[in-house]
Design brief:
Strand content: 15-25%
Pfam families: Peptidase_M16 (PF00675), Peptidase_M16_C (PF05193)
Number of helices: 15
Protein name: Peptidase M16 domain protein
InterPro entries: Metalloenz_LuxS/M16, MPP/UQCRC_Complex, Pept_M16_N, Peptidase_M16_C
CATH topology of the largest domain: Cytochrome Bc1 Complex, Chain A, domain 1
GO molecular function: metal ion binding
Shape: globular
Mean pLDDT: 94
Distance between the termini: 58 Å
CATH architecture of the largest domain: 2-Layer Sandwich
Largest sheet: 6 strands, mixed
Helix content: 40-55%
Organism: Thermosediminibacter oceani (strain ATCC BAA-1034 / DSM 16646 / JW/IW-1228P)
């Protein structure tokens, strides 16, 4: 697949067991970055076990727990093996996927074999699972004191009634105590099947050598492609759960986060990509650093340069966040509401909209100088049935009129919530 805009060629291969692999060579780099990702995140807590018809509701936090356990093999810790190769490795779990990765300048083939080996070899024992519960309990208690995480978690609990996006990715101290070896294997066998996974490699590599290495590793697995996994989510009303959540933690000044709940959901692919681009453009026009609103709030001392905004769009949910540290959360909330109301009344600036579109295109192209950006963005979009290389085309297609309609439908104050963390004293 040739991408003329960025002057790159993407190579693709699908294997007999359903695994899809993509390679993007970058000739002028001496580094290789690889990710192996499954479409399995914290929201996938209820599903039907393939081939059995068994409907299973698992404890919250099990996807994250499983990510931790995958690095443990019968011979020891996989991180140590990567370190011996001079390779940096890591992993992360979010709401919708779990991704394992490595970066290396010297030992690509050995590192890729190790990545494939440990992700495809579950090794869970009762003793190691019990030990992990203690480790993750400490991690969860640490996050209970993390104001940046708590302000977001509380916002999602305010926006959503029942959807599992409102739950902590790591689960709770109580929920992880319910995790056992049998459930871990059921989750692994369901979601870590190659049909539900994608491998992406970019950097100083030759595509055919990568595909040959994968083929050599996969040929003895004897796995047939798996049917699509039936995931079960509770019915979520369009309304929000509550308009305001406040808590107190050890912070020097309040942390404020405003969010809007997206109710135009139920689809992925190109339609979702277009909605994501349109919403992101709107947020940039309204609150970006070159906006009138940002300048005014900054001059008034209501925000600083850590003020930020983002949109998260998935098939089954969507929301935006706007905020940061502020000396006066109530006034900031009022000013943001006032600013959105004024734009809805007067209409968007066409000039600002076109300027922001050009900025986003430039930022996208610039991002391709980073192997990490390319790989992590690719898998994030892939799990939503989106090809990231379609981004420039859809960005150009988004019209001023579409953005204007989205402004009125998305920024509905009835679906707005505010989360604030105040200083304890």
């Amino acid at each position: 697949m040739q991408m003329d805009l960025i002057g790159e060629t993407l190579f693709y291969r699908q294997f007999d067991n359903g695994l899809k692999a993509y390679v993007l060579p970058k000739k002028n780099y001496n580094k290789v970055y690889a990710v192996y990702s499954t479409r399995y995140g914290s929201i996938d807590s209820e599903f039907v076990v393939p081939g059995t018809g068994e409907r299973l509701k698992v404890p919250e936090g099990i996807a994250h727990f499983l990510e931790h356990k995958m690095f443990e093999m019968s011979y020891g810790n996989v991180f140590d093996k990567f370190a011996e190769l001079g390779t940096s490795s890591n992993a992360y779990t979010n709401y919708t996927n779990t991704t394992y990765l490595f970066s290396t300048t010297t030992a690509f083939e050995e590192s890729l074999r190790l990545l494939l080996e440990f992700v495809e070899t579950p090794y869970f024992t009762e003793d190691s699972v019990e030990k992990e519960k203690g480790i993750i309990t400490q991690e969860l208690r640490m996050y209970e004191d993390d104001p940046e995480w708590q302000v977001l978690l509380n916002l999602l609990k305010a926006l959503y009634h029942r959807h599992p996006v409102r739950e902590d990715i790591g689960g709770t101290v109580e929920s992880i105590q319910k995790i056992d070896v049998d459930t871990l294997y059921k989750c692994y066998n369901t979601f870590y099947h190659p049909s539900n996974m994608v491998l992406f490699v970019t950097g100083a590599v030759e595509p055919e050598k990568v595909f040959d290495l994968i083929m050599e590793h996969e040929k003895n697995k004897e796995l047939a492609p798996q049917d699509e996994i039936m995931r079960i989510y509770p019915e979520e009303p369009d309304t929000i759960y509550k308009h305001q959540v406040e808590t107190k933690l050890s912070v020097s000044q309040p942390i404020f986060l405003m969010g809007f709940k997206d109710t135009e959901v139920g689809y992925d692919g190109e339609e979702l990509l277009k909605k994501e681009i349109t919403t992101s453009l709107l947020l940039e026009v309204l609150f970006g650093r070159s906006s009138v609103v940002y300048e005014r709030l900054y001059e008034e001392g209501l925000i600083d340069d850590r003020f930020s905004f983002s949109y998260e769009g998935q098939k089954d949910y969507g929301f935006c966040t706007i905020g940061g540290e502020t000396k006066d959360p109530v006034k900031l909330r009022d000013e943001l509401v006032k600013s959105i109301s004024e734009v809805k009344e007067k209409g968007l600036s066409r000039e600002d909209f076109e300027r922001v579109k050009k900025k986003y295109l430039g930022d996208f192209i610039q991002g391709f100088n980073s192997l990490e950006f390319i790989a992590n963005s690719f898998v994030s979009y892939y799990h939503r049935n989106i090809n990231i290389f379609d981004y420039p085309r859809f960005l150009k297609q988004v019209t001023f009129e579409e953005a204007s309609r989205r402004l009125y439908s998305f920024f509905d104050f009835n679906r707005m919530a505010v989360s604030t963390v105040y200083p304890k004293n």
